[in-house]
Amino acid sequence: MANMAVSRIKREFKEVMRSEEIVQCSIKIELVNDSWTELRGEIAGPPDTPYEGGKFVLEIKVPETYPFNPPKVRFITRIWHPNISSVTGAICLDILKDNWAAAMTLRTVLLSLQALLAAAEPDDPQDAVVAYQFKDKHDLFVLTARHWTNAYAGGPTTFPDCDSKIQRLKDMGIDEHDARAVLSKENWNLEKATECLFS
Amino acid sequence: MDSDIEMEMESDNDGEFDDDYDYYNTGEDCDVERLDPKRADPEYFEYECLTVEDIEKLLNELVEKLNTILQITPSLAKVLLLEHQWNNAAVVEKYRQDANALLVSARIKPPTTAVETASTSAAAAAQLRLSSSSGYRTSSSASTSSLTTAASGNPQQQQQSQPQRRMCPVCASTQPNDKFYSLACGHSFCKDCWTIYFETQIFQGISIQIGCMAQQCNVRVPEDLVLTLVTRPVMRDKYQQFAFKDYVKSHPQLRFCPGPNCQIIVQSSEICAKRAICKVCHTGFCFKCGMDYHAPTDCQIIRKWLTKCADDSETANYISAHTKDCPKCHICIEKNGGCNHMQCFNCKHDFCWMCLGDWKTHGSEYYECSRYKDNPNIANESVHVQAREALKKYLHYYERWENHSKSLKLEQQTIDRLRQRINTKVMNGSGTWIDWQYLFNAAALLAKCRYTLQYTYPYAYYMEPGSRKNLFEYQQAQLEAEIENLSWKIERAETTDRAVLENQMDIAEKRRTTLLKDFFPVIVKT
User: Where is the UBC core domain (chain A) (predicted)?
Assistant: First the structure.
């Protein structure tokens, strides 16, 4: 069985390498070890989204029973998205759970994830806080997502206002990532974030 | 109990139950009771204990019946019956109305016929309806072109690739056309992949729910294809066992005996929360929910109560903190990640983890739940007071529940002592063994009454305050008094007159029956 998993992964690896998307640099895949059980994927943030210009790294673990069970995928790059946990990078996507089909490939998974970045499903959220912001304060959501893309995925847009607020919290002895997470959650209200951290 | 009070009560009861007393002792030929046991005994329940073979026969008969009516394969008939709670008439009616819609809803056919698999598989789908079990095999050469293009770089592809060969999209190897199988949806995969796929699914406990391997395709794999391809005896057995379990569970009139390692299945046409006793392992259980019999409390409430009572371990705390029951099939679900959109592993019901509402009707209402999660202690002030009050109330009922449970066990010891005492008496020549038999009857009746009494406490706990609750608690108190009275008399059997004891038995049983008649939810008043 494992043999089939390896031969499938090898073929899919080639499929990704030969695909149009790799020419456009929108998806990438590389090996982590020699046994083909773990791979590293990378997807580019789709244009006209807050993730534009960012590169998002994914951890892909291939189970023994692949392709009859789905690969285990999570974001290594931190991301602000309703369907992806801002803490663990866990992804809520049907094809990675019950709707996985043996005929799907790594390429379809990567493209589906890219599509997920372009079209969030706030009614089916993984991260309730992000989803709330997405629906209720959409402008702030776009700003936060863009800021996270800049901070973690090499996105182009900087937000001096955000950075200065994070710096304020850092000066109080808070870890940068914690500060960013709390400020994002509190809609960049420094007072509330401070209250949340110290109460 | 003080003997004065006891005398008083006795006389009270004598007055109150004079009619009953006579009724029981003289009414041997009362045929109302014999003609309609349902009216006389609120717990009367007709059922049969069947073996796995009996049930297989029964299900096969249903399948055969449908086969002959609709001219379909047994495997297809099973799927259709499973989807309709084994209601033959419903299947036939739906089939006559719209066969296509029926096959689509039972996931035999895809909702819309796939465009790419043109004529051959459409014909195969039509064939399927006309009972051809060979409909799974595609010998088509029409759809090969689209598949083989992707195989050009495959290392395993042979140089001299023949036109009759193509690549399986799952294992990526090229194989002759006759190795390929497909369902009504036309998605075609090689034999080996189907086999491994089936085995993987069976290993995970999935049997009749196995679906097609293609993306976005939920067509179900019928039993005969699985059994054609899976050849390992272990896996075949497992598949058949799981499938059988699913069939029994989907049949409303059948229930597995919950006794350890017991293979018996109880069948009854009356689907209600009454007591069934397995004839093999003698386990008594509620027919509706399969747990310990719990009249007068209903299935949901006893479930709630038992979960609450399991509080002496951290397990209960963990269960209440991390798991919830599926709102449809009530299986316990632990959420170990993922979003609030849950799909029950058991019954495939989609629901919201936060509010347990149906996900379909849910949509944008999600945020109600999010608020609830973020801020669970609205009106935090009174919560502590409320919690304390709630605990006090709970303990009141729990202590009594637990007390009766213990008494039941203690009275088992009383029976053992009783047996010894009777033995000594018989040895000493005071009466024969038969003379003292009534004491065992009394003890058995006591256990029966106390069992019911024990289960009145969860019922009372979850009752809304009001006149009905007052009435219930009044009857409960009466029953309790009579039971304690009976218990007292049995323990002092030597000094109690036999007639007095038997009178007390009648009274206690009458109280119990009255309470059940008034409050046992399954009773249909005729």
Answer: 4-154
Q: Which of A68, A72, A135 to mutate to test the interface with B (most CBs of B within 10 A)?
A: A68
Cross-strand partners of A61: A38, A72
- For residues A153 and A54, the answer to whether their CB atoms sit within 8 Å is yes
Q: How far apart are CA B432 and CA B209, in angstroms?
A: 63
Rg (CA), chain B: 31
Can you tell me the distance from the alpha carbon of B436 to that of B421, in angstroms, rounded to the nearest whole number?
10
Contacts of B215 in chain A (CB under 8 A): 95, 101, 103-104, 108
Alpha carbon separation from B257 to B62, B264, B289, B307, B344 (Å, rounded): 22, 6, 11, 21, 24
Handedness of CA B128, B131, B137, B139 (dihedral sign): negative
A150/chain B closest Cα distance in angstroms? 26
C-alpha A162/C-alpha A143 separation (Å) is: 9
Alpha-carbon distance of B48 to B495, in angstroms, equals: 43
Q: Measured between alpha carbons, how far is B287 from B283 in angstroms, rounded to an integer? A: 11
Write the residue in B200, B343, B373 that is nearest to A98 by C-beta: B343
Domains of chain A: 2-118 (3.10.110.10), 128-198 (no CATH)
Nearest chain B CA: its distance from A70 CA (Å): 12
Q: Tokens 């605990």: give the residue.
A: B391
- Residue A61 φ/ψ, nearest 5 degrees: -110, 130
Is residue B188 within 8 Å of B143, Cβ to Cβ? Answer: yes
Smallest Cα–Cα separation from B245: which of B346, B331, B330?
B346
Rounded Cα gap, residues B222 and A71, in angstroms? 27
Active-site annotation holds for B339: yes
Q: Give me the residue from B153, B213, B367 closest to A102, CB to CB.
A: B213
SS3 category, B267: strand
**pLDDT per residue as tens, chain B (526 positions):** 444 444 444 444 444 444 445 555 554 454 544 556 666 777 888 899 999 999 999 999 999 999 888 888 888 898 899 888 898 888 999 888 888 888 888 888 888 654 444 444 444 444 444 333 344 544 443 333 333 333 333 434 444 445 578 888 888 788 888 888 888 888 889 988 899 899 988 988 888 888 888 888 888 998 889 999 999 999 999 999 999 999 998 898 999 999 888 889 999 988 888 888 999 898 889 988 888 888 888 888 888 888 877 764 445 455 555 667 777 887 777 776 656 677 887 788 887 776 677 777 665 544 455 434 444 443 343 444 555 566 667 777 888 888 888 888 888 888 888 888 888 888 888 778 888 888 888 888 998 899 999 999 988 888 888 888 889 989 998 898 898 888 888 888 777 788 888 999 999 999 998 888 888 865 443 3
Is the interface score ipTM higher than 0.85? no
Cross-strand pairs, B211: B220
CB of B238 within 8 A of CB of B266? no
Q: How far apart are CA A159 and CA A181, in angstroms?
A: 15
Q: Hey, what domains does chain B have and what are their CATH numbers?
A: 65-141+163-250 (3.30.40.10), 254-286 (no CATH), 335-373 (no CATH), 396-519 (1.20.120.1750)
